[in-house]
Amino acid sequence: YGAEIAHHHDLLTWLMTAAALTYAFLPLGTASAARTRFGAQALISTASFLVVAILVVPLVSRYGLLGGAYALCAAAVVEGCAYVALTLHDFRFDVRLRGIAHAAMAEAGGR
Asked: Please, what sign has the CA dihedral across residues 33, 38, 43, 100?
């Protein structure tokens, strides 16, 4: 990179941090799509957008370009936490369903 980019190396670092966080949780978003959790995905994306929309103005006015990168990082953290919570919820629900199905089959087999 040139001298202009080198002057903003901290900005590049924060933007790459936001991208890394987003990419780290991408498999959970894909798994949510495979489980057809489209409504939950829409809510998560909306929450992420709202975090950026709420934080970008105060952070950019205080920190300049870095503030925008901070807002993106905050949104990535919110999105990642939401996908982790959704996935854990779905796993617990799936385990309960399998337990109910197993109990029903055991009861039907015992008759």
From this structure: negative
CA 85 to CA 92: how far, in whole Å?
11
26 three-state secondary structure: helix
Contact 22, 76 (CB under 8 A): yes
Cα–Cα distance for residue pair 77/61, rounded to 1 Å: 22
pTM score: 0.80
The Cβ of residue 79 has, within 10 Å, a number of other Cβ atoms equal to 21
Q: Write the CB contacts of 74 (distance below 8 Å, at least 6 apart in sequence).
A: 51, 52, 55
Model confidence over 5-14: pLDDT tens digits? 788 889 999 9
